[in-house]
Amino acid sequence: MQEHRRYCSQLLVLLVLFIISLYVVPILGKNGNGLIEVDVGVILDADDHMVGKVSQTCISMALEDFYALNQNHSTTRIVLHKRDSKGDVVEAASAAIDLLKNVQVQALLGPQRSSEAEFVIDIGNKTQVPIISQATSPSLSPADNPYFIRGAQNGSSQVESLTAIVQAFGWREVVLIYEDTDYGRGVVPFLTNSFLGISTQVRYQSVLSLSASDDHILKELYKLMTMQTRVFVVHMLPFMASRFFTKVKQAEMMNTGYAWIITDGLTSLLDSMDPTIINSMQGVIGVKPYVPKTSQLENFKVRWKKRFRQENPDVDIFEMNVFGLWAYDSVIALAIAVGRSGIDASKFKKLHAKENLTDLAAIGISEMGPRLLQSLQNIEFNGLSGKFHLLNGQLQPSSFQIVNVIGKGDRGIGFWTRKYGISKNLCLPISKNYSTNKDDLGAIIWPGESNVVPKGWEMPIGEAKLRVGVPIKTNFKEMVSVRRDPQTNAVIATGFCIDVFKEVMDHYLPYAVPYEFLPFETPDGKSAGSYNDLLYQIFLGLKFCVHLQNYDAVVGDVTILSNRSRFVDFTLPYTEAGVAMIVPFKDDDRKNAWIFMKPLKMDLWFTTGFFFVFTGFVVWVVEHRVNEEFRGPPGKQVGMIFWFSFSTLVFAHKEKLTSNLSRFVVIVWVFVVLVLTSSYTASLTSMLTVQKLKPSITDIRDLIQRKEYVGYPDGSFVEGLLKNKAFDTSKLKNYSTLEQFDEALSKGSKNGGVAAIFQGLPHVNLFLSNPKYCAKYTMVGPIFNTAGLGFAFPKGSPLVPDVSRAVLNVTGQDVMTRIKEKWLGEEATCAEQDGAKVISDSLTLDSFKGLFIVAAVASFSALILFLSIFLYENWETLASHDSSIREKLIAVAKTFHEEKDNSSDASKRKPATGEGMAVPATTTADCPQSPATSDSQLAEWVFSHDEGLSTIETGTPIHETIEIVESSEER
Question: Locate the Ionotropic glutamate receptor C-terminal domain: which residues (predicted)?
Answer without folding.
Answer: 465-826
